[in-house]
Records
---
Amino acid sequence: MFEGVLLLHKPQGMTSHDCVAKLRKILKTKKIGHTGTLDPDVSGVLPICVGRATKIVEYLTSESKMYEAEVTIGFSTTTEDASGEIVEEKKVSQEINKKNILSVLESLTGSIEQIPPMYSAIKVNGKKLYEYARQGIEVERPKRIIQIHKLDLLSSIIREKGLLKFKFRVRCSKGTYIRTLAVMIGEKLGYPAHMSHLIRTESGSFKLEDCLTFEQILSELERNQLQEKMISISQALKDLPNMTINDTLAEKVLNGAVLPLPNEFKSLDLEAVFAVYNLQGSCLALYKKHPVKDGLMKPAKIFVIQQS
């Protein structure tokens, strides 16, 4: 039985759901889930949680992401990417240089407001936006504040047939739409635009160079080495605040006990979690501050340790 986080190099042309369904068959397990949707046209890092690791999905989706994208300026589309129908066209006639672009990228760095695209899975009144979009219905979308931690120009500027293209790298918070960011870049330059290419290179601490393709996964499976390629729960949560406890306390933790809150965690928010490890280095549980009992902590998730 496989357990841990499997880093998939998601190919273009598949939904994240398709990837999970395929891996469910390959690994012969139902207990599997991904940690953040990638559109079918997008490739890159897609962490897949298997077995007990499905309990930590929500804690991995909140991590920051890094992408490498290309924006094409000169026309916009219904989906804000290359797969959509053209909405507006305007040939790039004025001179746009590197200095102009760097200035726009700088202006979009930090805390900014985004409106999710109509072709997205955000729900409004219990219905996904893309369902409205497919029916030709435009609805008011909730604005959201997202964080652009870093936004860099990656390539030279390419001009062809009234269009302008360039690549950029962005590190951003959960919930950022890179498609929409590409449109915003175009708007600031005075033109309609869309995202013409995207790859996710990092998801939290997980990097593209550590990911496996489906072919590599099948190869490792044949060699009985796939489990070794997976990231353990303890390893996946290594960036969380943590504490190590003795065996006596470990038994109480596995029974879901409410325990005294160590001083170093008293400044954390109520919803912030921290990992509790045993002396052997295994993560036993995730705890957080007790919402009503001051000075105590309660379990958010408990990982039952398999007996050897």
---
Amino acid sequence: MTTYDSRPGLHADNLSPPPLWVCVLLGIVMILAGFLVLGDVVLVTVISTIFIGTMAIAAGAFEIIHAFWTKGWGGFVWQVLLGVLYIALGVVVVSQPVASALILTYILGLLLLISGFVRILLGFSHWRSAGWIMLLSGAFGVLAGLVILSGFPMTGLWVLGFLLGVDLISHGLAWLTYAWQPAARPT
């Protein structure tokens, strides 16, 4: 049975775009933050790893609280066990941020390599419907994975911070591009 929410409320269709100055400000702040991050990618890699560990601890605590809160739902032992595992993972990551950054970077390299190969195969199988874009994306994924894995363990000290910096800059550029689109400006 499908039900639809017909209550009046906040829907994405009814949202107006942010004002020009907000888009420009977000873009500039993100670009500056990206360059700041790129200034010391090793430090940012360690900080990012500590942040990931802290979030794992928080998620584990919430999972345990949720298990006690919703005892009647079933799976109580599994929820508590999952929460304890999250907390244990978070404690290890926070206590050993450099080793954890190395492990996370290695996993990222493997995932990029594997997903790149899959996208290349998909690109060939969907060649008639713009499969070349998927092929190109897969080639970049394989290349990025090979760069990370071939330079390991040294890449583990800078890759996460570098990716964060590049992401912040590209996100900032996207906000600036959005700000100067005539259709994006509120009238």
